[in-house]
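Reviewer 2 asked us to include a model.

Predict the structure of this chain.
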Amino acid sequence: MSGNRISRTKIVDGVVTPAFIHNSAHYFINLQVYADGLVNCWELLDLALFAKKLESGWVRTSVPDGKSISVHGLGSWTVAGGRWQVTAAGMRARVRKLVKQLNPRLENLHDCGGRTTIDGPGKMRTSILGSPRERPVREVLDGHRTRRHDGDHLSIFVRQNTVTYLADLRAFADGTIELGRLPDPEVLDLAGLRAAIDEGRVLSEPAVGSRVTIHELGDLALGDDLSTTNIEQLFRQVPDLIDTANGRPDSVGRCHTAHTLFQADPSDAHREALRVAYEAIPEHNRMYVGDMDTRDGAVRFALYGEGFEDDA
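Predicted model (structure tokens):
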């Protein structure tokens, strides 16, 4: 074993632009574009490999009418009357333009060498670069210094100038909230977000048939809603985003801790603490307390005597 190995972490700036991943259904994503020429479309690719993903239809700029669109954490709908502004060639050009804006001289662009995986033991394949989690950044001038605040995000609908947009709610470590993916991005705080929800300007469940615009991509009418998340549950998630941005456990993490304590000592006090922690999680995120197979079944069984049976 070597006694002289080290590693380093490098921060690479990037931007996002809207697109879809076509994997059975059409999944809306913030396509991540970085200054070193890497693009994240569920895996990091260089520009040449990204172009192939566009050609294959894995990355798309439109959804056919009658097909479904899924927006993580927000809902899924069938698409009607889609009017799309960007072709595959247009998306390729946009991504190259974004890279050049971030890296004007196009220096030190990453070259994947035509592959994104390496062969491991047996038939196992390992991703070379992985798929980084999208981390919003907000830069604020503080005297003569620029401070960077990390954030987290979720999708939401925002009404702006009579148009309903599929927007990006970005919450930062200092409590600032940005509404992005809009022609005119907005900055507010938790109280301002609460007011916008109460006014009906920020929402999660537009009526069937409503026309929604995805800024810089196109617009569509929402057909049948296949699933939706209540706006109050999304509002409850925003403090979790701020906790995550600060490196603190969110409500799911706190519930994990409470469940571990209950398993070690299943007392009434620990069961009550687990109940409080579990019910503090926004309903659409409670499934993440357990693993992919059991989800929150073990916690529900401990609290209510049910859980595993429902998931069978």
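The chain has eight helices and 17 strands. The first strand starts at residue 14 and ends at 23. We have added this to the supplementary material.
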